[in-house]
């Protein structure tokens, strides 16, 4: 039984502010906490009957998890040069996907901790076929297209409530309580890890009860950016059209292609944030 884990950091137990995630001494502490919470999910998965676990480090440069502290039964996808980003390594051979340490969307609850969608520097909102989604819902849609069900999530209470609107049956570990975008009511990391292991084990034991999250194609993505320059420069991809001063749209026939397309769009938007793209020399 193969389980895939997509890991992020904003939703882990101790995180409450962006300062903790910058490259400083604070960041080193939270890398360790992220690794420990991933290990807690790995432990739960194996207790539930998993025989193989693959983890994709999905935050920032996607090389946060400390390999020297990783549960030796798991394998880790690390590094940021990937076409499938937070889902690199996922395919139809997996039986379930878990989301550890994920966060709410930019346009979601005001209480979800460090809320953003894809790239906080540029994306204000994302829709798939008219439905506003965050990263977890988007990733679950891609997994569903591969017939892999989403079975577990962990993060703050507002994030869990948000995701359960789309995935009501997932097992969920609430590891903190959102107060504001940069404030949270925290529980002890040891308690958080215990909850993650408990719920991850339950998810794998319930595996036959889950269905892949399916969205019928074709897949239309609508993205609203924080600046008009970001939207404009994404139209360097011929299939992208502007639908407003800060909004764009594109459509793909299959979800995996749409996912790759979306990340290409976001990378261009990030590069265009301060007009950098226009300064590139041939």
In short:
The protein has 282 residues and is an alpha/beta fold. The chain folds into two domains: 2-115 and 134-209, Dipeptide transport protein (Rossmann fold); 219-279, Dipeptide transport protein (Gyrase A, domain 2), CATH 3.30.1360.130. The protein has helices spanning 25-48, 135-145, 157-164, 189-205, 228-234, 255-271; strands at 2-7, 52-57, 74-77, 96-100, 123-128, 131-132, 150-156, 171-180, 183-186, 219-225, 241-244, 247-252.
The CATH topology of the largest domain is Rossmann fold
Gross morphology = globular
User: Can you tell me the residue ranges where pLDDT is under 50 for at least 5 consecutive residues?
Assistant: none
In angstroms, what separates the terminal alpha carbons? 49 Å
Q: Tally of extended strands?
A: 12
Summarize the main sheet.
7 strands, mixed
State the name of the first-level CATH class of the largest domain: Alpha Beta
Looking at the overall shape, the CATH architecture of the largest domain is: 3-Layer(aba) Sandwich
Name the CATH superfamily assignment of the largest domain.
Dipeptide transport protein
Strands of the widest sheet, in order across it, are: 3-2-1-4-7-8-9
How many domains make up the 3D coordinates? 2
Radius of gyration: 18 Å
Order of helices and strands: EHEEEEEHEHEEHEHEEH
